[in-house]
């Protein structure tokens, strides 16, 4: 379930990008869960036409997924099918990461690929012809040459999985079969909704909506694309970008099936999040070990990347020493390493903390443990900043112990007075960073302390959403201040104030991006 401040933060993002009306519909769906159109109208108290348009905007920008859900009818009635709308919370959060996605593409491809990605990020989902329309006059060369260059770069992005075909517009979820429904009936469930929790329902819908693997990343080069567009009248006053949005929206009216003759494309957020996950894993290894370990770990990621099917993969495929070494020597830093040295680095990676597991003379990346280490490092950093060095030492002790420890034991371990130890532990407990239990033995009462990392991660994530919301509000305020000064003019004494506001805004934006990195560690990875 999405936390309180997670919902508020997502609604704030939608408000900034699409206005309060679309945000109201988004807020309703995040709080109530998937709903049919009539229920959204009832809860939001907006007209049906307005709600429908808001839903279309969210669909266009990949923040909402319509789907059909089969439900059991009453006694003597046939099963009914409901058309529901579900907000994709993760895709809403991704809207603040567009600059990170473009940075990833810029490191691998040329500027034209970056521009293609930017176009899709801006407009949501478009056909190939709609994408290329915006580049017809800006790309150098002949008309046919421009189209060919655009198609080749689009093909590169699809092949790298940065761009994909849009999901099925309205996937169908049927009731479970007799075998699947048997354990549900034993628990007393009455319908499909009884065993499909919200998170599981979202996963089922997303899986059902994904096109077959062979079609999802299939982009056919077509020399005829754009050939007829040169004949289109150029005296239209409509903006090209607006026209592309309207054309794409027309194919999604009512969230229904798009024109079968038109293939719509969008940015594949999964691939970008996977690359960012790899980056976090590499930096965690580098911080805990050294640059050589990070180089070998990066080589293992590159060697196993093609076999990764999901973002939250717990572990990689097994890799042999030779296959790892073959990947290591592809990099400039890796060419200085011998096979024996790489093996010694792998031994270090498989020791405490074990970033790599050894199974039958093969090496497997332990993504799950690596992300947990990154999460622990982040929580410890928060404790240090919030409660001080002694609290940080206590938290690390309890975190490593993984069990209840008595106050005296903690005091002795970190060489701090018992009274001061008890005071600090009490503050962390009041802040929900520790669990406390009382043990009464006769007239004596003992206080026992423990870190529940599972619950703490949820608390920390909600705090991060709260902080991100506050930062975004502050950024919006500073931006408004800049607009007022620009309206008045930046000459004279106003110039100094304007430059100061620019620095403050840059600092706030940088802080928000770093905070978003931390949010990804706890939520997306």
From TrEMBL:
<keyword id="KW-0240">DNA-directed RNA polymerase</keyword>
<feature type="domain" description="DNA-directed RNA polymerase III subunit RPC3 winged-helix">
    <location>
        <begin position="379"/>
        <end position="439"/>
    </location>
</feature>
<protein>
    <recommendedName>
        <fullName>DNA-directed RNA polymerase III subunit RPC3</fullName>
    </recommendedName>
</protein>
<dbReference type="GO" id="GO:0005666">
    <property type="term" value="C:RNA polymerase III complex"/>
</dbReference>
<dbReference type="Pfam" id="PF05645">
    <property type="entry name" value="RNA_pol_Rpc82"/>
</dbReference>
<dbReference type="GO" id="GO:0006351">
    <property type="term" value="P:DNA-templated transcription"/>
</dbReference>
<dbReference type="Pfam" id="PF22536">
    <property type="entry name" value="WHD_POLR3C"/>
</dbReference>
<dbReference type="InterPro" id="IPR013197">
    <property type="entry name" value="RNA_pol_III_RPC82-rel_HTH"/>
</dbReference>
<feature type="domain" description="RNA polymerase III Rpc82 C -terminal">
    <location>
        <begin position="154"/>
        <end position="373"/>
    </location>
</feature>
<keyword id="KW-0804">Transcription</keyword>
<dbReference type="InterPro" id="IPR039748">
    <property type="entry name" value="RPC3"/>
</dbReference>
<feature type="domain" description="RNA polymerase III subunit RPC82-related helix-turn-helix">
    <location>
        <begin position="9"/>
        <end position="65"/>
    </location>
</feature>
<comment type="function">
    <text>DNA-dependent RNA polymerase catalyzes the transcription of DNA into RNA using the four ribonucleoside triphosphates as substrates. Specific core component of RNA polymerase III which synthesizes small RNAs, such as 5S rRNA and tRNAs.</text>
</comment>
<dbReference type="Pfam" id="PF08221">
    <property type="entry name" value="HTH_9"/>
</dbReference>
<dbReference type="InterPro" id="IPR008806">
    <property type="entry name" value="RNA_pol_III_Rpc82_C"/>
</dbReference>
<dbReference type="InterPro" id="IPR055207">
    <property type="entry name" value="POLR3C_WHD"/>
</dbReference>
<dbReference type="GO" id="GO:0003697">
    <property type="term" value="F:single-stranded DNA binding"/>
</dbReference>
<keyword id="KW-0539">Nucleus</keyword>
<comment type="similarity">
    <text>Belongs to the eukaryotic RPC3/POLR3C RNA polymerase subunit family.</text>
</comment>
<dbReference type="InterPro" id="IPR036388">
    <property type="entry name" value="WH-like_DNA-bd_sf"/>
</dbReference>
<comment type="subunit">
    <text>Component of the RNA polymerase III (Pol III) complex consisting of 17 subunits.</text>
</comment>
